[in-house]
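Late entry, written up from scratch paper. The run itself happened at the end of the previous shift, but nothing got recorded in the book at the time, so transcribing now.
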Amino acid sequence: MASKLEIWNMALGFIGTRTVASESERTPEAIQCALFWDSARRAALRDYPWNFAQCRARLAETILPEVRAGEWGYAYALPDRCLKIHQLWSGGRRARFLPVYEAERPIILSDGAEALADYTRDVTETSRWDDAFCGVMARRLACLICVPLLKNNAGKVQELEGLYRAALPEAMQADASEREQRAEPDAW
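Output as recorded:
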């Protein structure tokens, strides 16, 4: 598990620029890392259901928008720090769902009553991340900060995006090997 500063320096290493000694530095490298950190983290977490970021929560029912009432039976508020809903459960079975933005807030529409959600949570504490994700995160951050640091070096941007895409399958496989997949119950 790497610290935030170590991940910043890995990203800067992929780009080939100088590293930083502190998050509070006022260098272009530190400024760009700080600027894109949250965006890169959320994007990397959404790319795969990483074990360390998976949660299950009972959803709080909210008012179903009138324009959706004919198609859906229930509306739920998103769980705190939710980045992506993977499955919704109602009565022990999967339920249909649709995340939408209605009435100035994100909600989840569903046919299932008293729903439980399996979702990816925004985990900001790098101490909870595994090493494979730290490497993926460094590559993701490098993709975002490359343009402002190298002034639109298109070849380097493509190279970094390729590094990111190449690192994902191996990290995903390592993460998946740490869980046991249960067979879905036969609907018959």
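The longest strand covers residues 82-90.
(Scratch paper discarded after transcription.)
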